Amino acid sequence: MFTFLNTTSANEIPLQRRLFWLVLLACLFVSGARLASSDENAMFLLVESIVTRGALDIPPNIIDNGSYFGEKFYIWAEIGEALLILPFYVIGKIFSYFVPFKEQFTPLFVKAVVSTMNAVFGAFLAVVFFRLCRLFSYSVRTAVFLSFTLCFGTFLFPYLKTISRDVQLAFFLLGSCYCLFSYSREKERSGRQWIFAAGVFAALGVLNKIVFLLNVPILAMYVLYVSFLQKEKISWWKNGIIFSLPFAGAFLVFAVYNFLRFGNILEMGYHGGTSFTTPLYYGMYGLLFSAGKGLFFFAPITILLFWGTKVFFQRFRAEAFLIFSLLLANLLLYAKYIAWAGDGSWGPRYLVCILPLAILPLGIFFEESSPLRKRIIFALAIVGVFIQLGGVSIYFGNYLRSIGEYPYDKGFEHPDFMAKSHFNPYHSPILGHWRMVERNLEEHLEGKIPQLVPSESDANQRIPFQKSEQEKLLHTFDYWFMYGIYAGFSPIFLFGLAFIVLLTLIFQSILLYRTMQHTYMDSLLRTGGEN
Questions:
Q1: What's phi and psi for 97, nearest 5 deg?
Q2: What's the rounded Cα separation, in Å, for the pair 236 and 109?
Q3: What tens digit of pLDDT does each residue of 236-272 get?
Q4: Is residue 319 assigned to a domain?
Q5: Residue 299 is assigned to a structural domain of this protein
Q6: pTM for this one?
Q7: Where are the beta strands (DSSP E) in 352-433?
């Protein structure tokens, strides 16, 4: 079995630090500073109840993804994401006491702080992905290019503006794989801390979303394979136990959480919407090839998987089987799910968790391609960035409202449910968002700038505006500085602040490029020109 080269070294730490800050700043620059979806607001309300009331129920009649137990209303969600949101909520709450906002803006400010959580996760995800690329001996330039393409050239980018747990699941799955591959790289009978860390990442994934359990047996099989065939034939079972230990803590948290809510450690609270009745061919086509949700449209570089994985399988057989087993298992599961499209959302939301693993094998194909092929790959990455810019500029819920597909007038099981946005190329969000960008830009240039004033009585609602005001949201841009202008704050101050963030982002990009060139030359010297 291939033993990974130890190519990650201390001289790459500055590059990883630059990469972290660049991704974080880019996500903060395009942030909407809002929580708009039902899932986001449900988690926010849960965290707010925990912090302010020491309770797990939330006020009723605000969101619909929950149910009553007795006289209390509980959301349909695991506790993991709420624990991750807690520090962001506390920070936002503390700072809200020092910011001179009117009372109706205070909840929005706290939500704005909470909304940055996935920007942080995205920055860490970029660093872990970079390090994983280096474990597979990809060059520094290739690792940076793939990291940038993952973060900005795929449908991951718009989700870095949210607190969607799909981003967190991607980080946990990638982190677990990184730890397992790092363990397989160890040449001596050591490195069990990597196995435990892989178990911690996987357990956090389960704590975040119970369906993550699907990935655990596949990860565990890799642990046993590496242990038995490569390293420790006698004590392979010990490694299995070490990997499993963190799950005991995760299930203990689950048990306490469920018991405190329902008096039953096995009751998760989900009711309805969890069936797997979609025909497999229908879900597979929708997730991969449909104009409104297809993986190959919303992450164009992944089309290279049809040609770019042969050499990867030849050189990294065990790792390739692990990666593609994870891809296939998740793809099959969500293709059968009744809500396979993850509506309303941008692209195939449920595939965000496996997106980094889908791009990882392309590194060898890129490095061994001719100059013409490399230009084609670069072009696919640039097209991907252009597609995502439409996704980050217009909130995807606004587009669905504009074409009459939200609020839903049909159930998930109906054959025409959201058929326009899913399968009609003209109504694909990829094109629809850019049409809205063009229209809204023309309106803004003509001075038709929406004025939005949050309603004090609706401050805790998912959309904190009166219904007469909500139509104006269709004519907005989904950026924090634009929302500030819509709310009546000084354009000079907001554009000035945005300009400072942009200048910092550009400066950080220059520093990253220079650091990358220095690191690349250094790695060439260390490897004799083979890197």
A1: -75, -15
A2: 51
A3: 778 889 999 999 999 999 999 999 999 988 888 776 5
A4: no
A5: yes
A6: 0.94
A7: none
